[in-house]
Recover the amino acids of this structure.
């Protein structure tokens, strides 16, 4: 133990080593919740590997920071390697907590703690490394070593591999903690491997809900009820963010939840920023008709969403003016603007083409025939399939989705549109009305439709279901997925389908 701690009694020192929750509260002067203590106690045994899936707002990053501090201080000569999906998460979240604990400890903990590194003595340290830096983990050895993975679901496979390779010492421990957003990947696999001690902390155990203690910004009963009301208790968002359960991909969702969840991770946002801007500017406009529906204008630049402008109860002239203003602001060419031309949207299209854009704006009818009539019953189903392709996490320029706000969650939920196979064997996405019937608040999927419209092909280019905007390089994996849909058989027959007029077209 460091002399600066004034812990002279060896028995007391051993007790702190054997119970990291006791060490954290004693040395850092903090209070931990019951489940935070349980995490650290499970991590106290030499060689322990602990994996924790949690709901939002239970203080998981705080617990991870306490683990870093307690292990480093109580194990002379130890090394602690901490990581998270991005450098910002390492620096501004996990290590901000570590630095705060270091500064506020009742006694000096020893060494020098900086932004993402804490040196006690040569060879005795803790460090924060972003998930893009697996080479900085390699070569770390020692008798006592702890790996901490915060937001573990988003940590890349190279980091996981590096940690598994390095964890060969006498006392190599690992703490993986995060929200269960994806049912596949290394974090999900930890709950199937016997080496790991698994933990689950759902909203019912959140300190703010139980009344055990108050965590600023933590999950509350009111927040849980709001999530249930907005998305439904059976939704993927509610299961992962409130119940701490891994949501399965719905076989009847045209876009799998796993693709939506991956697109909302911060690493995807960073990757999207690396794509040169201004090379693929598109605008989609979904025009509101009545009630609570919103007119949504979305501007997309390749894998980045630049704008989501929403308004309702507006005249067509106002909507047309907004389209002109936003197109000018983001330099979107008229031919790259697709407008939902059904209903009152037709008035917006006519106004723009007749008065401003000499018939270049794309009028898109959701119920029109698809370019690929063999596989898709209508045009809207086809553009949602292109959106699905754009969200493929294996694509270098995969689309990034916003995250961290209620509006972002609304968009994510709207993308989970269901489909069936018609009596003709074509894929047909559910109508807006059917989606609203399934949705707890009856909200219209306007944001998702506006985004999908940015994948409507320009009129003068050939369609290709395998990629967005008629790219000649077809995506073999998504074509295979499309084939699998039809090989799986019918999901039900559309008995009322009209062969040509299609009166049940999505509107």
């Amino acid at each position: 133990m460091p002399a600066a701690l004034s812990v002279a009694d060896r028995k007391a020192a051993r007790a702190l080593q054997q119970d990291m929750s006791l060490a954290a509260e004693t040395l850092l002067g903090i209070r931990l919740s019951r489940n935070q203590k349980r995490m650290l106690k499970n991590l106290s045994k030499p060689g322990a590997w602990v994996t924790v899936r949690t709901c939002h707002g239970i203080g998981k990053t705080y617990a991870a920071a306490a683990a870093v501090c307690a292990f480093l201080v109580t194990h002379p000569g130890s090394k602690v390697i901490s990581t998270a999906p991005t450098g910002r998460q390492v620096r501004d979240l996990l290590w901000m907590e570590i630095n705060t604990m270091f500064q506020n400890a009742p006694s000096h903990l020893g060494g020098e703690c900086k932004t993402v590194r804490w040196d006690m003595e040569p060879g005795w340290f803790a460090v924060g490394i972003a998930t893009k830096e697996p080479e900085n983990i390699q070569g770390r050895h020692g008798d006592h070593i702890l790996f901490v993975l915060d937001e573990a679901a988003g940590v890349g496979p190279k980091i996981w591999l590096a940690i598994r390779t390095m964890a060969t010492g006498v006392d190599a421990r690992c703490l993986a903690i995060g929200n269960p957003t994806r049912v596949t990947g290394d974090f999900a696999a930890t709950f199937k491997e016997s080496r790991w001690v698994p933990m689950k902390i759902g909203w019912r155990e959140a300190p703010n809900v139980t009344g055990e203690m108050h965590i600023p910004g933590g999950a509350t009963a009111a927040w849980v009820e709001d999530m249930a009301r907005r998305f439904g208790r059976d939704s993927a968002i509610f299961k992962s963010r409130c119940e701490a359960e891994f949501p399965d991909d719905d076989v009847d969702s045209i876009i799998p939840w796993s693709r939506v969840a991956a697109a909302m991770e911060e690493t995807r946002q960073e990757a999207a920023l690396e794509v040169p801007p201004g090379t693929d500017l598109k605008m989609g406009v979904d025009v509101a008709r009545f009630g609570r529906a919103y007119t949504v204008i979305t501007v997309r630049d390749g894998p980045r969403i630049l704008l989501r402008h929403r308004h309702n109860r507006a005249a067509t002239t106002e909507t047309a003016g907004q389209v002109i203003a936003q197109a000018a602001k983001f330099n979107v060419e008229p031919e790259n603007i697709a407008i939902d031309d059904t209903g009152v949207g037709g008035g917006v299209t006519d106004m723009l083409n007749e008065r401003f854009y000499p018939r270049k704006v794309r009028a898109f009818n959701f119920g029109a025939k698809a370019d690929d009539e063999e596989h898709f019953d209508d045009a809207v189903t086809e553009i949602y399939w292109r959106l699905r392709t754009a969200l493929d996490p294996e694509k270098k320029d995969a689309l990034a989705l916003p995250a961290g706000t209620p509006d972002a969650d609304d968009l994510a939920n709207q993308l989970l549109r269901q489909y069936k196979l018609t009596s003709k064997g074509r894929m047909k996405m559910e109508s807006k009305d059917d989606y609203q019937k399934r949705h707890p608040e009856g909200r219209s999927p306007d944001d998702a439709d506006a985004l999908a419209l940015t994948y409507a092909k320009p009129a003068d280019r050939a369609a290709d279901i395998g990629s967005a905007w008629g790219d000649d390089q077809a995506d073999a994996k998504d074509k295979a997925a499309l084939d699998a849909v039809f090989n799986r058989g019918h999901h039900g027959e559309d008995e009322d389908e009209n062969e040509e007029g299609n009166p049940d077209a999505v509107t």
The domain at 3-210 is CATH 3.40.50.300 (Rossmann fold). The two ends are 69 Å apart (CA to CA).
